[in-house]
Amino acid sequence: MSDWTPAEMPRLDDATVVVTGANSGLGYEGTREFARRGATVVMACRSVERAETAAAELRESTSATLELDVRECDLASLDSVETFADGLAADYDGVDVLCNNAGVMAIPRGETEDGFETQFGVNHLGHFALTGRLFPLLVAADGIDGDARVVTQSSGAHETGEMDFSDLNWERSYGKWKAYGRSKLANLLFAYELQRRLDAADDDLGVRSVACHPGYADTNLQLRTAAESGNPLLKLGMRAANAVLGQDAATGAEPMLYAATADVDGGAYVEPGGLMNMRGHPTVGRSNDASYDRDDARRLWEYSTEATSVEFPL
Q: Keywords assigned by UniProt (predicted)?
């Protein structure tokens, strides 16, 4: 049983950390811990208003001086991702940690601004584009223990996902939970393929790609799923499940914090070390076999590059 807690995180006084979805849930708790250790945290959020409110709450809840930089980044818009990355490049010399954390879960079928199915577009393609746009800043950073980190948040639901390259955007049929599982499987295929491409690069670029999942964490992600369904009974059920089964968001954020700052190899998968890997403190584990499928990872990378018009210099 792992006993690691954020108390073991190093000081991050000169580090710049980008967290998507930083205004609530896992992103909010992760932002708190990064900032408490001296990092400048860029809160990359769809709603600047909600992010400013969250930043004010974080500052009020701690005696430490927190360096928080709120910026708009809507992962459902490739233009917004590009604008965010351009603004960051103008103001920062490097990004030491990028936490690809934001996401949507099991919502009715919709499409992003660019015409992608929303869960696949936000959870995977938006983060693929963001990582590619910020890649020069990652390479330029000093990083943690010498390497910048790309931390991609997946879910245990990746085990239900299947890659159907003939219908990645669910235009023929749609199941909201199946679509969520596919998007989380895509997160892992991307994280591992990025590390393989880093390993194959001619030079050591000083960037490490790590994946994680939070276990069953009590956050507003489940409540949004229920609200989007329009079913009041589902909302009650989600609240009850969160209360009985879920661990608090602070504990759920620990795998992301561990992946970002602890001594882990590129390509690692950090997950809770407790009951069924859904609760407890973080440990390095293994995701399902499908997530390590190199052919699927290459096909997904090629599709993502074409779909987003973002190419990594690898």
A: Oxidoreductase
Is 216 one of the annotated active-site residues of the chain? no
pTM equals: 0.91
The 10s digit of each residue's pLDDT in 32-90 is 999 999 999 999 999 999 999 999 999 999 888 999 999 999 999 999 999 999 999 99
Q: Which strands make up the sheet holding 207-212, listed edge to edge?
A: 67-72, 40-45, 16-20, 97-100, 148-153, 207-212, 269-272, 282-284
Domains belonging to the chain, first-starting first, are 12-215+253-308 (3.40.50.720)
Rounded distance, CA 17 to CA 135, Å?
13
Which listed residue (180, 192, 216, 269) is catalytic? Answer: 180
Q: 3-state secondary structure string, 196-253?
A: HHHHHCCCCCCEEEEEECCCCECCHHHHHHHHHHCCHHHHHHHHHHHHHHCECHHHHC
Tokens found for residue 175: 């199941």
Which of 260 and 227 is assigned the larger pLDDT? 260
Residues forming a β-bridge with 152: 100, 211
Pairing type for strands 269-272 and 282-284 reads antiparallel
Q: Would you tell me how many other CB atoms lie within 10 Å of the CB of residue 22?
A: 34
Buried b (16+ CB within 10 A) or exposed e, 214-240: bbbbbbebbebbbebbeeeebbeebee
- How far, CA to CA in Å, does 252 sit from each of 79, 93, 95, 247? 31, 30, 24, 7
Rounded to an integer, what distance in angstroms lies between the CA atom of residue 99 and that of residue 37?
16
pLDDT tens string 264-310: 999 999 999 987 878 899 999 999 999 999 999 999 999 999 999 99
Alpha-carbon distance 238 to 244, whole Å? 10
Span 240-254, average pLDDT: 74
